[in-house]
Amino acid sequence: MHMITEDLRPLHAAAVRATVGLVARATPADLAKPTPCAGWDLAALLSHMTVQHHGFAAAARGRGADETCWVPAPLGTDFPSRYADAVTDVLAAFAEPGVLDRPFVLPEFGTDRPFPGRLALAFHLVDYVVHGWDVARSLGLPYQPAPEILAATLPIARAVPDDANRLAPGAAFAPAHPVPPGTDPLTEILLLLGRRPGPGRVPEPGRAAA
User: Fold this and answer.
1) What is the pTM of this model?
2) Of these four, 10, 47, 73, 81, which has the most CB atoms within 10 Å of its CB?
3) Is 209 contained in some domain?
4) Domain count, the chain
5) Cα–Cα distance for residue pair 68/152, rounded to 1 Å
6) What is the helix (H) or strand (E) element at residue 84, kind and residue range?
């Protein structure tokens, strides 16, 4: 991962808050829809996104090693408000003084070695720029983060290792796809992290892709 020296928290907060509006557009009837995350319907994706916010918040507060903080819960009909609460939790944790220099334990990254807070924030930023697209794609909604958010996220996406770990069950990202010359920043981020951007929404199982 490339060296991160700047404070990305304002851009991170804007990117994460934008996902609240997307999730608020979903209804209980949408939860069975497929997503770009292989094997996950929208319910599974939103459950993952919600618990990850709480997990990163716990890590920011020194409790990341508690694996119960990372166990997703089934969604209820109040999932939009629960998701918004999770966003409030993680942004409050990342706003605490000194958090960028704290050690973060993130067991889902497959190591007990702590990560510097700046790097943990970068992980969370790239994850939610991509997951915002995942939700929008599932619902057939437009999605275009601000240019400054994409400019901060692209170097992080380029630095994510494209190795055999991406083939493991439950890997966060699929193997990267080729990036044609002149590709716009959002599309490049998605291709680098194994997504297949294109028009429309994710096709229902058994139907041809858009």
Assistant:
1) 0.91
2) 47
3) no
4) 1
5) 31
6) helix 79-94
